[in-house]
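Help wanted!
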Amino acid sequence: MSKTKRNTIRVIITAAGFLIMTLLNYLIEIPLIVNLFIYLGLYLYIGYDVLRKAARSLFYIRMLDENFLMAIATIGAFAISKFGEGVAVMLFYQAGELFQSIAVKKSRKSVAKLMDIRPDSANLVDGNKVIKIDPSMLKVGDIIEIHAGEKIATDAIITKGVSTINTSMLTGESMPVTVNVGDKIISGCINIDGVIRARVEKKYADSTVSKILDLVQSASDKKSKSENFITKFAKVYTPVVVILALVLAIIPPIFVGDWANWIYRALSFLVVSCPCALVISVPLGFFCGIGCASKYGILIKGSTYLEKMSHMDRLVLDKTGTITKGQLKVTNIIANNKNDVIKCARIAECKSQHPIALAIMEFNTKPIDNNYEYNNIIGEGVVARNKETEILCGNYKLMESNNIKCTEIDTFGSVVYVAKNGQYLGAIVVEDEIKEEAADTIAIIKQDGVKVFVLSGDNKTTAQIVSGKVGVNEFYSDLLPDQKILILEEIMKNSNGSTVFVGDGINDSPSLIRSDVGISMGKLGSDCAIEASDIVIMNDKLDNIITTKKIATKTMNIVYENIYFAIGVKVLILILSAIGLSNMWLAVFGDVGVSVLAILNSIRAFFIKK
Amino acid sequence: MKETYNMIDLDCANCAQRMESNIAKLNGVRSVSINFLTQKMVIDIDEGFNKKDVLQLARKVVKIINSDCDIEL
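Answered by r_m:
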């Protein structure tokens, strides 16, 4: 039988016995000695483990642990002939402990379930055979087979087959994604239909799943101020209350007598001397808040970031990949002969991996002459040559330095100028699309008095247009990564709350680390993003910043409610007990009742709506 | 280096805190954090110390504070 079950039965039996005894005492006269024996029996039955632990703590640690305090309080009650109270205090204490352990286990389970992304096994393709192996045995380059309904064991690239995969475990996104040969698939996602084969890209230990699990498991490392406060409070609170109890039990009766009455009041003190309500409910509140966020694909590395997020007053956004989709597209060709421009540009850019080059290559799929030699001029562009032609493809600087006559085009996006054999052909405009939800998200965030900034490595015109369209307060353009840090620090200096930086983690890791809260988003599978940031938004949606803020604020409210409520009730009961207006029943409520209510309140954090 | 260990039957938050502060005092422990909710201990042991010895001591501390509880080594 499990411990929980055993304890439940004990609590029920004792409660029944206690009720019967109370009723009998009410109806008939029971001799003191009989009462003592029956109550003592019930007491030992419900409290033997507490008494055992109390004795242990007395001998081993010489510390005031809650078992010891409960033991003293209840034995004291028996000593002054308050048998019923003695049993009741122990009974409620145990019932409260039981409830706590059930509640905590339940929330632990539901959070663990959300995080159940660990793949159990992988199917390794070995010649004609497929063998089931542990994901940690996979090597880079191995081919794995993923059947319908299975979790993807490690990050891989599809080599065969088409399927849809469910990424909701990681991103909170319920729409399945269709994947094809050549697509990257992320560990932890589930293959919904069709058998696919894929080449392993990363060892299991380096896979997205391992990174995320690491992050979640050591989440507790970074404790919030409120949690540290509770730890310190707990260390002081108990000894202080115990000393007050001693004073109350000894000093007043020396002058006014009536020892039993004063001892009774002191025992009430001991009953409320455990800070359990706070010690459990505050971390539980954060835990449920973090769990709730993970439901929406938001991973939070520790309670401290939830706390800081609730104080956000500066939001600094990276442009590319954060406000924009980070996928460049050719949006305009400014030329007399557009086909000629794009043809030459595609010849020049076909060897490059630069995002702009990729966008130009994607414009069409026509075959390209490849008898050219290439020369990359850093910061300007590409020169492609063969016997009869020379193609220049790059920015305005490239045209200038080759004495090609053309006018500089001032527009939104990046402009690529193309020239052939010394003649200017035209220009191609490449743009990045702004995310649909960007403007609304920023408007909502600004409503809370948060100032929003954009930092961009792009030219001023682009940064200005994007900033204008989404409505930020200020923008900075033409920045190198180290310049971003300087501006970020300047912004942080003027902030009274916390400065939150949001980036895609590609070249802004320093800013992610430097800010109070670094959020990376949209780059599922990028190692440095997961490591450098404090919060990871696993899908691409900017509005998850609002969700994170909301969860942070509500969780903090719940935590503060619990702190004020628990301390308030306890202090009130202490005062009432000291002046004799309270009794042990109320004290038990101050201990167990407050714990239960605070825990129930904390669990609410798990159900915060988007 | 930081390592994570599972805690078995860690069923009181107060004890977790007490274990944490006492293990932190052990020689060779750079930092330790015990999470009652995830039932995990993250411990950073100085390279100059024998990891096994330090962990055994930590285990002893855990046992003294709560005899039902253990560290999964």
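OP: Thanks! One thing I noticed: Residues 2-72 of chain B form a domain with the Alpha-Beta Plaits fold (CATH 3.30.70.100).
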